[in-house]
Design brief:
10 helices, 2 domains, mainly alpha
């Protein structure tokens, strides 16, 4: 698909606002950053901000979309040739990698947010992230690697409860330990719980 110069400029502008906002949030904390400050530092008006984002919370949704893109572009191709158990382990380890990249404060705000829009997006099983997870689990159940005592979707929910739980604990500890190493360690026990 080819973009017009106007579309390319719009994508570039949105990205600049987004990157500026995320940098500010990482430095100052989500609650300490205003839309005015984002606009001032990015060189755009509030009108431009609201053209691309409905609210500051939309920045969090964009981060989740970026995670979807990461899983589609980076993670999915690396799953070829792995057993279902290896795929699931790698998939879940990458979640910790993404969490570390996003940062404690932003992850904390994903947990604190009580809006329907963000919660619905986080739990949307039509997102690429969840589609990949469901495919891995479905394959593992069909091959007899994973338990069939839970449906594919229930097992996906179990996996996500586990990974979000590990991330949540990490945020409660203010990121004081290596989340990727902790996830790797916990996964050794978790994976045993879902094997057939």
């Amino acid at each position: 698909m080819r973009y017009t110069s106007r579309e390319l400029k719009a994508k570039k502008n949105k990205k600049k606002i987004f990157v500026t906002a995320i940098d500010l949030i990482r430095k100052k904390g989500y609650d300490n950053v205003s839309i005015n400050e984002i606009c001032s530092l990015s060189g755009f008006t509030k009108g431009a901000f609201y053209h691309y984002f409905n609210s500051k919370e939309d920045l969090l949704i964009q981060l989740l979309r970026d995670v979807d893109d990461y899983y589609t572009v980076e993670v999915l191709p690396k799953l070829d040739g792995m057993s279902s158990t290896e795929k699931l382990t790698y998939f879940m380890q990458q979640f910790a990698y993404c969490g570390y990249g996003v940062g404690v404060d932003i992850i904390n705000n994903l947990f604190k947010s009580q809006t329907k829009v963000l919660n619905d997006f986080m739990n949307d099983y039509d997102r690429p992230f969840f589609k990949i997870l469901l495919e891995i689990i479905d394959e593992g159940q069909k091959k007899g690697e994973f338990t069939d005592k839970l449906s594919c979707k229930e097992l996906a929910q179990y996996c996500m409860s586990f990974t979000w739980g590990v991330l949540h604990n990490w945020t409660l500890e203010n990121g004081e330990y290596d989340i990727e190493e902790k996830m790797k360690s916990y996964l050794k026990v978790f994976i045993l719980s879902i094997l057939y």
